[in-house]
Amino acid sequence: MRARSQVCEALLFALALHTGVCYGIKWLALSKTPAALALNQTQHCKQLEGLVSAQVQLCRSNLELMRTIVHAAREAMKACRRAFADMRWNCSSIELAPNYLLDLERGTRESAFVYALSAATISHTIARACTSGDLPGCSCGPVPGEPPGPGNRWGGCADNLSYGLLMGAKFSDAPMKVKKTGSQANKLMRLHNSEVGRQALRASLETKCKCHGVSGSCSIRTCWKGLQELRDVAADLKTRYLSATKVVHRPMGTRKHLVPKDLDIRPVKDSELVYLQSSPDFCMKNEKVGSHGTQDRQCNKTSNGSDSCDLMCCGRGYNPYTDRVVERCHCKYHWCCYVTCRRCERTVERYVCK
User: Fold this and answer.
1) What are the pLDDT digits (tens) for 295-348?
2) Which UniProt keywords apply (predicted)?
């Protein structure tokens, strides 16, 4: 009887950890929205996959935003796969949205990254859509109050970061604001990491300038505030992923807070990604923990980084194979003004993990 009771307690604990953990990123399933769905009528909102009721309501009241949000879901997936292409965990499970594996269902380091990236991406995409005139509800960002520097003037069309952050947070944070969706610790973790993503986006806002003048003399430069490319924001978040802090949900004063597990004398920093549960090494396939394994993954024999055959293959060794590559070669410039090239074929040796 006691053993049976312990099993029941373990199951209840696991259920408490996993219930609703990934609701906040189910909206990435919008990446699969068919092009045939026009998204020009409010009844279309209920046909969209992965949304909670609060997001459906936001869809109905901000219908003009939905094409941009669908695009953001696709961009988030591409950015994640690109950022982790050389890692054992290569973000392939993000494409299973809304039915994720445990690598993203639990409060892992990987889910921390995806929450941060998805929050940054939706705000980035909306801010850029304002700039390009794709959204009727917003326009260019405000002109800064400070002067741009000698020989420079403010002009152009700034990325509307404030509008992107406002609408992006409303949509992507909506599932975490719903009552009774998972444990309080998971909610706090998801909201914290989403805000870290938006913080990384704010930090990417920079002054960009374009030269004007006779024969490119650059006597005057027009400047505006623009966001860095999403791949740069993803790279920043990947650095934070690599140094993420494991936390516990612990009483501090009258409420519980997330505090570093090994350094609980200090609060969690606003700039750091946090996670509750350790991840596997992702070496072997194990769907119970959301690991696809690295068998048949391509590796780099000469690299010392995460894509090296030693690290990628987890010491199992690798198999070589040859591949034929066709590329442009013997290119020649002709006056004026075009280039002709020949097509050359060469054989390269590649390696895959055993």
Assistant:
1) 999 999 999 999 999 999 999 999 999 999 999 999 999 988 899 999 999 999
2) Developmental protein, Disulfide bond, Extracellular matrix, Glycoprotein, Lipoprotein, Secreted, Signal, Wnt signaling pathway
For residues 319 and 349, give the distance between their C-alpha atoms in angstroms, rounded to a whole number: 10
Nearest CA to 168 out of 187, 190, 189, 194 is that of 194
pTM for the whole structure: 0.88
Q: What are phi and psi of 249, to 5 degrees?
A: -95, 105
Beta bridge partners of 245: 274
Q: Show the tokens assigned to 316.
A: 């199992």
Q: How far is CA 135 from CA 129, 173, 189, 240, 349, in A?
A: 6, 21, 32, 32, 48
Cα separation, 125 vs 113, whole angstroms: 18
Helix axes 109-131, 161-172, angle to 10 degrees: 140
Q: Are 204 and 227 in contact (CB under 8 A)?
A: yes
> Which residue(s) pair with 132 in the sheet?
none
Q: What single-letter amino acid sits at 165?
A: L
Q: Is 296 left (phi over 0), alpha (psi -120 to 50) or beta?
A: left
DSSP assignment of 89-127: S-SGGGGGTTS--HHHHSS-HHHHHHHHHHHHHHHHHHH
Residue with tokens 């870290």: 196
Q: What are the φ/ψ torsions at residue 17 (nearest 5 degrees)?
A: -70, -40
Q: Which of 236, 280, 247 is nearest to 117 (CA)?
A: 236
pLDDT at 9 over 60: no
Q: 3-state DSSP call for residue 142?
A: coil
Question: Angle at CA 89, nearest 5°, toward 84 and 90?
Answer: 40
- Gap between the Cα atoms of 53 and 76, Å rounded: 22
